[in-house]
Design goal:
Length: about 180
């Protein structure tokens, strides 16, 4: 009898991140993930001791993708520092990463461990921004203010539902980026 291929560890993590993004941490249930993957839940325990272990692995994957991978990609690309900062924001808050980021932010309001992880991730993102802005901004107060405003604009873009008279949302966000980055 041929051996049955095991569902890869990464598939459990990916499905967990999808569940987190759509339903929050309560939606990350072993039975539901197994059903979505079309497998039994027995394979889960070959990789993870329990649900808490999976949640930690999911946060590790989110942190790696949204900080380490983004910074590595942007650093490998050519461009001026402020262009790299804008590119990092585009990647960090892309349709692939933003839903998980927003879910983690929401989750962090109820879980101090997740809040500590989010703080570490946001601090790493801010430090990258500071490094990029330092090339053109010497005043430490202006540096911190611009970095904070840029970060707030990136995070809050999908959270603020407002109409802009005479301009599209994209035009307003582009103008805001020029104010911050030029």
């Amino acid at each position: 009898m041929p051996a049955t291929a095991r569902t890869p560890r990464s598939s459990w993590i990916e499905e967990g991140l999808r569940a987190l993004a759509t339903g929050g941490p309560d939606a990350v249930r072993v039975e539901a993930l197994a059903r979505a993957l079309g497998v039994t839940k027995g394979g889960f325990y070959g990789y993870f001791t329990d649900r808490t272990h999976l949640l930690g692995e999911m946060l590790d994957a989110w942190e790696r993708r949204s900080v380490d991978d983004v910074i590595a990609q942007v650093t490998a690309e050519s461009g001026q520092p402020l262009t790299r900062a804008r590119r990092a924001a585009d990647l960090t808050f892309s349709p692939a990463l933003l839903p998980v980021d927003l879910a983690v932010r929401d989750w962090s309001r109820r879980d101090p461990t997740v809040a500590a992880r989010l703080r570490r991730v946001d601090n790493a993102r801010m430090e990258f921004l500071r490094d990029q802005f330092r090339s053109t901004i010497r005043d430490p107060d202006e540096l911190e203010a611009r970095c904070l405003l840029a970060f707030c604009a990136a995070v809050a873009d999908d959270l603020i539902a407002v109409d802009h008279p005479l301009r599209s949302r994209e035009e307003v966000m582009d103008r805001a980026a020029r104010v911050l980055f030029d």
